[in-house]
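Entry 14. Structure prediction run on the chain below.
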Amino acid sequence: MVLAALVLVVSVTQLARYLGYAANGNHALFSVTMIYLLSSIKNLPVLFSLSITLTVTMVVCRSYQDSEMAVWHSSGQSILSWVRPTLLFTFPIACLIAVLTLFIAPWAERSVEERKNDLESRDDISVAPPGVFIESSDGGSVFFIDALDRETGKFSGVFVYGEKDGRISVVSAGRGQSGGPGLSADYLVAETGNRYDINYEDSEIEWTQFSKYGIRVERRVGGNAYVHQSGKSTSKLFSEPSVENHAELVWRLGLPISAVLLALLCLSISFEQVRGGKSYAIGVGALLFIIYKNVLAFVETLVAQGSIVPWQGYVIPHLSILVISSLLLLWRSGSLSASCFKLVGR
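Output returned:
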């Protein structure tokens, strides 16, 4: 339920943003939908990690609220007995996070960049939705198509408005198609229509009636898709050692490890609140998650800048949380206090 709620919130938020791109007519709905789905895949590792943190915190707090922990303690068990079932619950999800982070998320990032580059290289007509006025990429023309068959390239009800060298040209036709005999897809061929040319200086109007009229459509030239560090494959990061690649690996390897360590940390800070309510569990879990991820991102930046060596970025954040979690669990269970009293007694 926790994961489903997180996915729903993030998906609806992103869906509104991406549908806005399709609504303004700059991109085709199918292409925007694919980019939206691929972008959602990239968010899954973080959502899985957050769901583990919130779930463990809420379960332990509820056990105290329902007096289940009183029975647990009366049977001679301490909070340390929760470590094993927590790890059994967390480890399979952490493995899934590792697969998503190391393999699937980089592929999704590359696919998003490739699709964005493909959209930028398409001509204006190929991305024009029917019934919407679309401005050309150079800003010199406005297109309108009433109906379009993308498979055959044929359309009906076309209107083209353009300005160039102090003249306004308006073309209207009942039907047409992209390309034609001897022409590439960069030409829009209008059939059975009229063209009106208006001169700014003398307001002279020229009217031309045609059976076929070819209009060159500027094709936007897109370069090679830029691949961010997050889009590089994990094998490439390992095969090409650099501070930037090590920094990316610090983040990728840190996500599954942090999911396990956050679960252990939640055991030590959430078991004592009997009347704190669910809001306490959610607040504490979310705060721990945000702090840990920000620390991980900060360490990633330090590695990328060369401020620390890579092995420190791999080890220090997680080792610190492991030590803190272990000490808190021992303290909450009473084992650490007993050991301290023994040392003082000696």
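The radius of gyration is 30 Å.
Filed with the rest of this week's runs.
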